[in-house]
Design goal:
Oligomer: single chain
Number of domains: 1
Keywords: Membrane, Transmembrane, Transmembrane helix
Shape: elongated
Distance between the termini: 18 Å
Protein name: Gliding motility protein GldL
Radius of gyration: 13 Å
């Protein structure tokens, strides 16, 4: 986790959001899992960015 950059977390969250929207019509449970995972990855990126700016 320490060697992963903040941009990687942001990119992974965008991918989760895209896949969530693609799978929204077919499987609603996977949609919510990917949505929550995208939000978590986004906030991990924010926390990583805050930690590197100090």
């Amino acid at each position: 986790m320490k060697n992963i950059s903040a941009v990687t977390f942001y990119f992974a969250s965008v991918i989760c959001f895209v896949f969530a929207n693609v799978l929204k019509g077919t499987n609603i449970s996977v949609y919510y899992v990917l949505l929550v995972l995208g939000v978590i990855l986004f906030f991990l990126g924010v926390l990583k960015r805050i930690g590197t700016n100090r």
